[in-house]
Structures are given as C-alpha cells and as structure tokens.
C-alpha cells in the first residue's frame, strides 16, 4: 500500500496525491510511505522517483545493517525498529531530500503510523519538514527500544531471586535465552548508535541543518541503551557464575557425604568379608559369642570413624 501526504506552499495539507503529480507538482514538500508494498508498487521507486538501483536493492532485501548512503539530491538511510511482541528487528528505509521524504517498510510500523497521524492533525504545520519527520520516526524507534530492556531487567531480577523455587537447569536455560535476547538487541542498537553518530558528524546533509541538536538527543538515548545492555550482560554473567558455583558447591557436598559413608563402610566390609570366607579352620567360627563380638567390633569401628569425621568438621 502506498499513501501520500503533501504540504502546499500555503501550508495546506493534501492527502492521497498521485505520485506522478507529487513529483511534477508545485508542493513545498511531501511524504510518500511505502507500507508493505507489492512488486508493482516497488516499481515507483524506479519511475517516477528515479532512486538509485543500489538503494532500491537495499530496500528489497530485508534486514540490512543500519547505514547511511549519499546520492545526488537525496540521502538514503537504513534503520531498524523493534517488534514489541516478538522483540525481533524490522527494517525501515528512508529517502530524504530537502523537499520530500520517502519511507519504505515491509512490516507495519507503529512509529510511522503515529508520526503520520500527528502530522495529519498538527495545527502547527509550519514546524514540519522532511528532516523533522525523520527525527520523529527515529525518536519513536529509539523510545521503543527501552521497554524490552526493562522487561529483561525485571526477568533478570526474578532469575536472581528465584522466589518461585525453580530448578537450576530451568533457571540457566532462561538465563541463556535472556543473554541471547540481549545480544540481538545489541546487534540492533549499536549500529543505530553508529548511524546517528555519522549523521551528527556529516557535512553533506544540508537539509538537516538546525535539527542536529534533536538527533544528538537520540544519540544520548542510544548511548544509555548501550550501557544498559552491557550492564545487563555483565549481570547475566555474574548470575551464571553464581549458579555454577552453587551447583559445584552442592556437588562437592554430596560427594563428601558419599565419601564419608563409603569410608566408614570400608573396614566394616573388610571384617564382613574376612569372616565370610569359607575356610574350614577358622577358630572364631566355633566361638559361641563370636557373631555378637564381631557385630560389636563393627559397631565400634563405625562409631569411631563417624566421631572422627565429625571432629574433622566434615558434617558442617
């Protein structure tokens, strides 16, 4: 679907203007949104918009790395937003010039829809221009990076506290899933941070003069997001190491108990094995109280070894 909005020289807003009339018409500026376009609609990027084939190719191929390319009379941006339900990244492309902005996305974009509605209903249309539309959309994208990270922080707190008493295996599995999500977020946010940094230091984007202070604020948010991701990744490492240490301690404790039990029964097994041999000439076998004496001896040996291990602190 393609939708358009145009601003006349008298600040009047006109919607759903044909693309050919937009390109050839006398408008102050206009916005064309390619929302989940068909193959036929994608051809409008070639004619009449006449964008470069490499930029069109980047639009067609999904999930390009966020980047910035300069072409004659316009600048091409590749950005990534986050799906709030699946926490997966979705590509949004921009063609920016002094008198138009073209957005292209294969998935529905809540950020573009929100800015589109704000522009359509704005009583102060004079403050809007293509670079201001770009700023508002990217700003919404970056703002929507925060909720998934806040959810991850809450999940890490639950894993750390383990108030529900889940097993170690379940906790570690959930922890590694969280680390994977943090890695995916870092692969989205870090390139976006680099993109905004490149925009701030660009000398060729004359159409954005006077708007750099707004993009600098976005860059600050991305720096904060990067720090939050790194802090949470370090926290997952600490939690993982703590669980592994606890698991090793519990394993060592179990092994120590088993070792004590095995050691106590070693002399008892020897005594039982000694008098279990079927030799005919064993004097103790003919003793009336031999059975009870051996049991008493085994009891004393076991008790002595138990008290000796306890004195050594093996049962603490």
In spatial order, strands of the major sheet run 2-1-3-7-6-5-4
Distance between the termini: 72 Å
Secondary-structure element series: EEHEHHEEEEHHHHHH
- So what's the overall shape? rod-shaped
Overall strand count: 7
What fraction, in percent, of the residue positions are helical?
Answer: 55-70%
Q: Characterize the biggest β-sheet.
A: 7 strands, mixed
Write down the overall mean pLDDT: 86
Q: Assess the beta-strand content as a share of residues.
A: 5-15%
Structural class: alpha+beta
Tally of contiguous helical segments: 9
What is Rg? 36 Å
Low-confidence parts, pLDDT < 50 over ≥5 residues?
Answer: none
Topology:
Blueprint: E1 2-7, E2 13-15, H1 19-24, E3 29-35, H2 39-42, H3 53-60, E4 67-71, E5 74-82, E6 89-96, E7 100-105, H4 110-121, H5 130-143, H6 146-161, H7 168-200, H8 212-274, H9 290-311
Parallel strand pairs: 3-7
Antiparallel strand pairs: 1-2, 1-3, 4-5, 5-6, 6-7
Description:
The chain has 316 residues and is α+β, with helices and mostly antiparallel strands. The chain is built from nine helices and seven strands. It has helices at residues 19-24, 39-42, 53-60, 110-121, 130-143, 146-161, 168-200, 212-274, 290-311; strands at residues 2-7, 13-15, 29-35, 67-71, 74-82, 89-96, 100-105. The chain has a seven-stranded mixed sheet, sandwiched between helices. α7 (168-200) runs antiparallel to α8 (212-274). The protein is rod-shaped, with a radius of gyration of 36 Å. The chain starts with a strand and ends in a 5-residue tail after the last helix. The relative contact order is 0.08.
